[in-house]
User: Fold these one by one.
Assistant:
Number 1:
Amino acid sequence: MSSDSPRPHDEPAPADDQYRPLFELSPQPAMIYDRESLRFLDVNQAALDRYGWSREAFLTLTLRDIRPPAQQQHLESALTSATADAILSTQAIHRTRSGEELRVELTSYPLRFAGCAARMALVNDVTERYSARSALVHSEEQYRSVIEQMQDVFYRTDDQGHFTFLNRAWELISGYTVQETLGSHYLTYVHPSDRTRLMDAVRLLTEGAQRSARIEMRYFQKGGGYRWMEASLR
């Protein structure tokens, strides 16, 4: 039978014919690289779109070429510690053709490809998620810095009434340190005669009957006695 003769219906298609469309159409960037040289043997369309190289250019690169200089040692350590047949999951920073750095989560699998001992790496781009988390942390740090400078006491409790946050003004007003107060119940520092009024106000808030409350009460001082304070609750 000549090489261009049609294949009988009962003859299985070569694996490449069966699986390449799935590899190409996957929305997740995927790369196959030679385990010895780290040269890319194949990449799918999602990888080309995200990283910006043409297929021809991508296949001239190695795994080292898409890592920024600061990540080279991280890559070498990962390669040294990895066993040949292991399924690996790790985080890394990749670099695109334009120089953009991507935060990625990688899962790689061993396989034979084009006669080579190879690995396939699936890339989960978490750059936007990481950027959003970093922005949130930065915003929280800014507001925390503002609150720490305020003369009023700001505090937060969990749903059981235990302090989870206090600014430094608490130390100036009560004499108790923030560290020794965190985790204790807010009623511990309230004069017994004022606790019922405070608990009634808190109950209305937790039940949704009110969105805020303002109440005057006495707080104990660490050095003795108590001090009248007005609390705004939300």
Number 2:
Amino acid sequence: MGNFPPPRTYRMGLGLVLLLALTLRLYAVDHHLPYIYHPDEPLHLRIVWAMFTTGDWNPRFFNYPSLFLYVNVLADWLVFGGGHLLGLLPAADPAA
């Protein structure tokens, strides 16, 4: 067939690539926080927070595809709900 490197070489190469990716991600994990540089981020966050706190799945904003907003609401429910169940986070206050 051909001269392919042994599987161990592939695993080592993949491990090095993943280690480099993890290193770069952890190095930049707080890049520019708490500042927001994209002008749409506050708008998206307000919409997602309103959907999260009210439970209303209608974003009332259709300038962009809504899947992004729905995925963010689901992620918020998982994070806040899981954190509340584990006692790490207080319950989300809908009045806030």
Number 3:
Amino acid sequence: EALLRIDLRLPPAERRQQRPLENPDPSLGDYLEPNALLQSDDPQLMKLALGAVEDEPDAWSAAQKLERLVYETIDKKSLDVAFASALEVCRTRQGDCSEHAVLLAALCRSAGIPSRVVMGIVYMGGIFGGHAWTEVSIDGEWYALDGTIGRGSVDPTHIRFGTTSLKNGGFSQGLLGVLQGLGMIDLEILEFAQGELTTRVGAAGIRSTQESGRFRDLLEGVSFEIPNGWKVTPGDPEIREMSNRFVLAKLSSEASRATLLVIARQVPYDYTLDHIRRQWSERAGGAKLHQLKRRVACREGLVGSYEADGRSFRAAAVLLADSLYVVQMSPVDETGFSAFHQVLSTLKIE
């Protein structure tokens, strides 16, 4: 057994470095040079990278811009691609975590930022699974970014098993080794801390509780009052390809046709409520959309009603740091409407 404590690491302001590096340490040579998988000297990749960072002199800020670029460029999140090179990914714009990792590593090198690819595991949608992401060197220290998620840094559930410059290839074998080793490892989260709040999950791995008429998800720190006559089922992880959306709770009642979902999502660092407005509008597909600003869980939020795919929806959304929380009801009926607003009015996010 081993007990791990993993902290979020960001480059301190006093150690931020300029890009491109002048007279770099010879030990960084393999992490700056192009190779067969990271064609960072290719004109297409150079143009893409320099167009994104423009004149940004700070290496970390530039790397964050490139992470965001990769997140948006690979618009087909697919598991069908088997370990493509950065140039292939740039042309096809599809792939899974390994394609995000190699493209980001190559673009960072194109912008004069040392980079390497990481193999490990990540907690997403309620389980740990094999994953790949990218690290960049800032003033001699390595800091992680994840083009698959695009949040501007990584959370502590990214557990690194190994790194590679990809100078001699071999990435596919390394990641396959991680995936094969997962079957031999049993992991559980005992506690996590955000700011001064520490939430203990416990050795039994209890995810949620229902006590005194209140549901509480221990990992997300989300709780709400359970409406009379409604049953709450803790949500199973919802994993669709590369989705980071999962259901914390599902509410149902024999007296209503409606189903209520309480959903949590990790979102990019520059995500705003305007993104929610656009997504609701796109989902409505030209149908009438009613939306208004409203306080949700004591914070500025958004409540909206719309129709999509022949069904009526009512939803409320609120942002907290890099997490988006949504309460959703469909279809809309009178009994469900009352329960929806009871959940919304008693919702707390710690």
